[in-house]
Specification:
Order of helices and strands: HHHHHHHEEEHHHHHH
CATH superfamily of the largest domain: Intergrase catalytic core
Distance between the termini: 40 Å
Number of domains: 2
Helix content: 55-70%
Strand content: under 5%
Radius of gyration: 23 Å
Strand order of the largest sheet: 1-2-3
Number of helices: 13
Shape: elongated
Length: 299
Amino acid sequence: MNTLDHYREYLKQENYAKSSVKSYLFLADKFIAWLTIENIKGIALDYKTALKYVAYLQKFYNKPATVNHILNSTNCYCNYLVHMASLERNPFTGLRIQGEKRKTVLHDLLSLDELEDIYYSYDTEQDKHPVRILANKRNKVIIGLLVYQGLTTSDLKRLELEHLELSQGKIHIPGGNIGNHRTLELKPWQVIGFLEYVTQVRPELLPKDHPENPYVFIASGGRITDTVAHIIKKLKKINHKVTNIHQIRSSVIVHWLEKYNLRKVQILAGHKRISTTERYQQEDLNQLQEIINTYHPLS
């Protein structure tokens, strides 16, 4: 079994789609061919080599998005080399070029402290009416899923009781047209809130004429979208920076990227394409070049 065969098995184990495996193998082969022409051994891969490869790619591809796609693929291959102990560190980590048009506009992001604050500051006892107190307790569970797991409204709609594994502190998010299936860990305090909601609150919110509803969240009128909109209005009173659920999710994903590698964040966020996750990255090649010039001068 040659290197690419081993790499193929690695990609399969990492749950890459068949189309991605085919594309990554093709690009890895091209990268290996370039290394051979440049007489560069795998163990000698460093930032200088990575930048040299970027310059090589830019001679053939005008679109930054194309170059960044290839760099992402090369980064994956180098992660594999690190995994196989053939490379000490991956010089392509976080490497990308500017100029790519992004659909995701990141602004007014919430800090980790601000995310936690809107969760803890949401008062479930703010309304004295018994039904509203129940709704507020449901809403706090939802807020937790927004600020800790970065769920979308569609994710919330699809959640059923069978997707909860509270004894293990986990929740299974089913896949849909946009998002992939993933299993996420819950914070200990989320588990406590979930247990109260499932055993005490939810039964009281269930319509008397439809007690067999399998979905986790029972919303007034059956519209979870309206419930989320109501929650956002309440959160704006806690922090005026809050704008919508997309801003909260973007904030969570950006903070994940500061802590985890790109592939793990893709899985956590449920993105079908890794290019979607890439849009949330905050680093660019110019920043990396400044670092290299300072600590690893080419001359």
